[in-house]
Amino acid sequence: MISRIVLILVSALLLAGCGAGGSGGKNSVVAAFYPLAYAAERIGGPGFHVENLTPPGAEPHDLELTPREVGRIVNASVVLYLSHGFQPAVSKAVEQARGRKVDVLAGLPLHGNDPHVWLDPLLFARIGTKIGAALRRPSSGFVADMRKLDQAYRGGLRDCKRREIVTSHAAFGYLAARYGLEQVAITGLAPESEPSPQQLAHVVEVVRRTHATTVFFETLVSPRLAETVAREVGARTAVLDPIEGLTPDEQKRGDDYLTLMRRNLVALRKALACR
Question: What residues in the chain have per-residue pLDDT under 70?
Fold first, then answer.
């Protein structure tokens, strides 16, 4: 009787451990947010189970983890994340991970603490190569797609009347640097930060001086500040997506990183009066 009770308790503990750890296994990949999950799914293929920690419509900077999600990080065979304070809760949980930990920012030419490297297709190609090595899968197809995207941006932004892009937060520094644009950001790297009156006045002055016709806002944060600046200078607003995650509507439409980057290019060409 006692041995039977012990067996039941052991079985219950094992089941609880499996539940807390989630999708462990040799082909389990946990990605901190959408771009990394997209790259892992493209490169890993159907042989890998990829889990995105950031749900659709959520702002990844603000992500908090449940104990179950921490368990998934601990038990995954590969964890893909960004350092530099992009998602502090994920970086803390990664310290406990038993599998391979891949900081995709390591070794890249960074702009200070700006983590938005995936908006530069060539840097994202380098991330894809790193993910391919971690999964032991070829990344050549992914890299080829990023190079084609880079060529589309180079051609599309080569001959433009304006070079300044006015954005709601400073997410587009890598994209701007790659294609010879100047980012004029209303707020800093964190989208929830509030600009001071002096910062807001400076942005309005720059927009007027450069005759910008468009103030860009994002899909996952409030457009209030962008609308305020646009009203002040008589400009319009439009979406420029930092692709930190998909909205539920984008997910339903079957959008992905490539379709959103191409949509961004169309928006930039219109705002900058490109030929």
Answer: 1-25, 190-193
